[in-house]
Specification:
single chain, mainly beta, three-stranded antiparallel beta sheet
């Protein structure tokens, strides 16, 4: 079992993604063979890449506001919203607010 504040895990710059940092708060090193939990911080105006992959995402917006870009357009979200991204669905999280976007 692991119980800690998320900030106990060091934030690292997301490789090749300016303005984005990630904390790997639960991963294989914690004994989780099938699951990973990450906390992303996205600076104002920054975004994740527009991409897809064979696994799903379940996302909880902790702070801020933005849009999820999909193959068919942009969908707005704000603090305390959830986002489900299906496997192989094109997606990008874009910070449209004045402060940090954390999810």
């Amino acid at each position: 079992m692991k119980i800690q504040h998320y900030t106990a895990t060091k934030a690292e710059p997301a490789e090749g993604i300016p303005g984005v940092s990630v904390r790997w708060v639960i991963n294989k090193g914690d004994g989780a063979p099938n699951f990973a939990m990450r906390v992303f911080d996205v600076a104002p105006g920054a975004s994740s890449p527009f991409h897809q992959h064979p696994w799903e995402h379940q996302v909880f917006i902790l702070k801020g506001e933005g849009v999820v870009k999909t193959a068919t357009g942009e969908i707005p979200f704000q603090e305390e919203y959830i986002v489900y991204v299906e496997p192989n669905e094109m997606h990008q999280f874009i910070n449209k607010g004045d402060g940090v976007l954390r999810f």
